[in-house]
Amino acid sequence: MPNRKRPAPIHPDLESIMFTEAEIKERVRTLGTELRNTYGAGEFTMISIINGAVMFTADLMREIDNPVRLDCVRISSYGDRTMSDGAPQIVSSLTIDIADRHVLVIDDILDTGRTLTLITGLIRKLKPASLRVCVLLDKEERRQVPFKADFVGFRIPNKFVVGYGLDFAERYRNLPCIGVLKTQIQGTLEWA
Predict the structure, then answer these.
(1) pTM to 2 decimals?
(2) Per CATH, the architecture of 24-78+85-156 is what?
């Protein structure tokens, strides 16, 4: 009798799973191919917006064999809420020189567009040779400022999602899937 793999049980705080671990891995692999096609064999600099994009960035880096430089920027915009307060703040900025370098900004989710507008504005002032943006998720319904990413993993509806680096109050980042957080969890910061 064939050995059939059972699906992993859904986390009790998730309403549903939007993307499985396997679907994410496959899409990241495809994005790696898109990046290789865009950059050829040339070097480029990845700037990861952390904490959310840590897992995505690490997996994406493993899918390319270009020489890559890595830096991280830390932004605060959600805190312990499910909605951005509309004013992203740079907590920690770049540490490497990006002048005349090809730069790829990586983020977990393009939501209101405010964070990526802030970051790309900062980077443009540093005069890179080129600037592109790669996001795992694009939630276009929530856009408050015009912004389009060059590379998009998945387009999603206006649902609050967690897992694979995305969090709620710094929780759920470690889930291997991306799921919709239950509404009753979103409304509370009380944890058992």
Answers:
(1) 0.87
(2) 3-Layer(aba) Sandwich (3.40)
